[in-house]
Design brief:
Layout (H helix, E strand, L loop, with lengths): L6 H20 L15 H22 L20 H21 L1 H15 L5 H22 L14
Helix pairs in contact: 1-2, 3-4, 4-5
Length: 161
Amino acid sequence: MARWWRPELGLAVVVLGLGVFVLVGTLDVSAAASQLGIGPRFFPMLVGGAMVLVGLFYVIDVLRGGHGDPEESEDVDADAPADWRSVGLVSGIFLAFAALLNVLGWIIGASLLFFGLSVALGAEHKVRAAVVALVMGIATYLLFVKGLGVTLPGGPLQGVI
């Protein structure tokens, strides 16, 4: 390969490509003409546009000679083995969430997802983690359903909120 090609450039191109992919995918999202305020296209367009800008600046930086600094932190052990137990737990929790989302609904499913992830990643105060997970589940539901007009599965709580 040419001398100008480095791993940093590969990451920059991936970020740029993902941004374009998000923008193009968002063009297919349709919203009712009578809908006022921020629609379901706003945040994907915002994120996609930001990714394109970051990707462009990153490509320019790498082509001008920029490079990533080597890892120098004290708390990272490059020789430590991967924690496959945590990877398996997190993967299992996400798969269970995806499988049970329509049955449990967003509020219950997301609350269990947030609680399960916090416990799997080492939360020491389980009651606090459960309360925060429940608040986050309700808040995200209200934000998306009431604020953005996005339909999320209600499950057994359909019509309650």
